[in-house]
Amino acid sequence: MAIDDILIDGFDRVRQTVHSTLKRVTEDQLVYRADPESNTVAWLVWHLTRVQDDHIAEAFGREQVWTASGWVERFQLPFTPDETGYGQSAEEVGAVRASAENLAGYLDAVHARTVECLRGIDESDLERVVDDSYDPPVTLAVRLMSVLSDDLQHAGQAAYVLGISRRAGS
Question: Which of 26, 56, 60, 169 is 20 to 30 A off residue 69, Cα-Cα?
């Protein structure tokens, strides 16, 4: 199996997990919080998609789907367009209110861009430095694995929060 196929398979798994969660979620469950500091399904899905969009766009020299395809306007969140959710307060997490349709649509658009960028990369591409602000500098391989790991964790967390919300009667 080629490197690009392995990476695409990983990002396909993120998409599949999120879609499985979103097809079973109600509006109340999207914003359910186990406690006032907890993340919501809506925030987790928005955040994992924003990070993927931001990092893939930067690594491949592309504009983010968020701004290029009008998703920032569709979501109408009270944040600057460059916000990805990293380090947000509990209040900011609670401000992410979005429909399952918008969350799935944005994820699908980012996933399509990710696949487009990954198709055809090989081992030598993975050694390219994409961020030299760290010591050691971050290579494409490290960045892709970081995004994939973060996305898989958040996708699982979203499914878990959905389960908790159901047990709580939401």
Answer: 26
